[in-house]
Amino acid sequence: MLDILDKYDVLGAFWMTIKLTVFSAIGALVIGTILAVMRVAPVAILRRLGAFYVNTVRNTPLTLILVFCSLGLLYILQVNLTDPKSPTSIVDNNIRWAIVGLAAYHAAFVCEALRSGVNTVPLGQAEAARSIGLTFTQSLREVILPQAFRGSIAPLGSVLIALTKNTTVASIIGVAEASGLMKEIIENETASFGVFFIFALGFVILTLPVGILFTSLSRRLAVKR
Amino acid sequence: MSAQNVLFDAPGPKARRRHAIFTVIGFALAAVTLGLVVWKLQAQGQLEPSMWTVLFTADVWTQYLIPGLINTIKAAALSIVFALAFGLLFGMGRLSHNGPIRWVSGIVVEFFRSVPVLLMMYFFFQVFAFNNYFGTDYNSLAAVVLALTLYNGSVIAELVRSGVHGLPSGQSEAGLSIGLTPGQTLRAIQLPQALTAMLPALVGQLVVILKDSALGTAITYPELLQAAKDVGTAYGNVIPAYLLAALIFILINYGLTNVAGRVERRLSRRGRGPRKGAATAAVGTTVDGSLGGPLEDAAVGETPDPAR
């Protein structure tokens, strides 16, 4: 079995998985934070727009979003994210669209994680902050946001783990990441349990440290109430 | 919303003026986005009326969408039933007083929770198709159902475990003190209460399963997404077909989410939902909308896995 794996670039495929994860995680964090701000804003229309985005994206299958990015936006609407003349344009375009799709999808979950963090802060905290004379900005900066961030660490960790696993969906639009390579191997060689186990183990190795890190972080930084 | 109360005061005249400005900006943002989409569609000739009206003809539905939707629902229904059985079995295994049973259940649950569903689907499909276990028509369905069962069953096992842990300790103490064995206490006293409390999270899991069944398109299972792709190929209207499929998914899942929320409110009215405060710290109304489970000691990854 090891000689089979020698013929294929397994580490390269997992490197692509890691790249997809990191870039879309950054994107999801940025979009998700903007969405979260919109969803708690005192302006009704911003709240509605944020809620509309979250409800729409959260209830759509990720597969549909990625296929739509690749087939609909790239091939039909011709929205290129790379220079169309470069020789690797098709591959790069699919990778970039996969990152955009993954980021857009997980932004909805990041938004909900952040919002739930804000919701863990009891009203009394804000009242106490204002009653000792802090201004709005001060109370936000010194009292409320620190607690809100601590409250959202655990759900953010869950989102990051789910994102890592969800990068496999990018194989459907032809991105050469780990699950796509496994598919290729078991189609060309044999569907041995060993090959599956090695790739599964790769994902366990990728997600386990993240889980442990975020769990210990959320325990250590938990707000005592 | 409590977030508003925590973050903002009642607006004064200055703040109200500022809000008015943001309202205008918000509307402008929405209008610009919509305008860009329409302009882009128009520029690529995707706004031809015939591309959209064809979606309302009977053939599109009877030939493609309805069979696809039935296949999606079939896969989801089978998966939730099997996942429930799997989850109960391994959830009880994780609560067992027998060490080896507990460890084996723990390893199985943790393993299948951290392996991507699509990876399992590829593998099972290849195995089934190679040996032709279920016949050519059913190999892909079996692979979809097995992968969804293993993943979601493990999530449900976690729900069962944390549901039982979330019960007041007096419940198991009362069971033991009237002479029930630990196993009897678990089955007769703790599980029924835990299951009732986790009902909303279960319905929420159904949303996850329904969305994940769309992965079946990667292994040629003819579900709704595949049907939309076929419509797009047959009528040359890929974008309208996908948007329609998305709309169907959204409507069904939105409905299910509402059902889950309603069940949860009803349970908490009857005082049988997750205990107050149990869900605040880590999970609660986190990642999947209003589906706070009875997950008291939920750490990372012990939540009903959100983004899946």
TrEMBL record, chain A:
Key word Cell membrane present: yes
Domain (ABC transmembrane type-1) ranges: 14-214
UniProt record, GO biological process: amino acid transport
Keywords carried by this UniProt record: Amino-acid transport, Cell membrane, Membrane, Transmembrane, Transmembrane helix, Transport
Entry-linked Gene3D superfamilies: MetI-like (1.10.3720.10)
Topology of this chain in the membrane: Multi-pass membrane protein
InterPro entries, per the entry: AA_ABC_transptr_permease_3TM (IPR010065), ArtM/GltK/GlnP/TcyL/YhdX-like (IPR043429), MetI-like (IPR000515), MetI-like_sf (IPR035906)
Residues passing through the membrane, by range: 20-41, 62-81, 191-215
Entries under PANTHER family matching the protein: AMINO-ACID ABC TRANSPORTER PERMEASE PROTEIN YHDX-RELATED, MEMBRANE COMPONENT OF AMINO ACID ABC TRANSPORTER
Family: Belongs to the binding-protein-dependent transport system permease family. HisMQ subfamily.
Protein name (Swiss-Prot/TrEMBL): Amino acid ABC transporter membrane protein 1 (PAAT family)
UniProtKB/TrEMBL annotation, chain B:
Subcellular location, record wording: Cell membrane
Pfam families recorded: BPD_transp_1
Keywords associated with the record: Cell membrane, Membrane, Transmembrane, Transmembrane helix, Transport
Main localization category: membrane
TM regions (residue ranges): 20-39, 51-70, 76-95, 107-129, 141-160, 239-260
Listed Low complexity bias regions: 276-287
GO biological process: amino acid transport
InterPro entries: AA_ABC_transptr_permease_3TM, ArtM/GltK/GlnP/TcyL/YhdX-like, MetI-like, MetI-like_sf
Molecular-function GO term, any one: transmembrane transporter activity
Protein name: Amino acid ABC transporter membrane protein 2 (PAAT family)
Organism: Humibacillus xanthopallidus
